[in-house]
Amino acid sequence: MPPQTLRTVLARDSREPVLLDLPTITYAGQSLAVTLILRLDEHRIWRGRLQFLADGVDVPRETFEIFCGAREQDLWDSVQSLREHHFRDLYRSLE
Question: Is the dihedral of CA 27, 28, 33, 38 positive or negative?
């Protein structure tokens, strides 16, 4: 998975989720937009879930918060280690 581009964070509410667009994947002939949604919990641990949005569908499907890390970079590193087939399997588990 290609690395995420550097993003500038201006003073933001730490409770506000961070949305990172990941590369689009293909599953069963349809394109799926994939977004990583990160948040900082009350214990200052980063938690993340994946959101999948298929072409022509209004309601996205989301995983639970299956990623966590002491630092945002730790969480991001674990997501970057996933391959496309992992994303397809996660999407398929939401059907």
Answer: negative
Do 57 and 40 meet the contact criterion of CB atoms below 8 Å apart?
Answer: no
Tally the residues of the chain: 95
pTM: 0.81
Question: What average pLDDT values come out for the chain (95 residues) when binned by 10 residues?
Answer: 50 74 94 95 94 94 95 90 94 92
Name, in order, each residue with C-beta under 8 angstroms of 52's C-beta and a sequence gap of 6 or more: 32, 33, 34, 60, 61, 62, 87, 90, 91, 94
Instruction: Report d(CA 87, CA 33) in Å as an integer.
Output: 11
Distance CA 59, CA 46 (A): 25
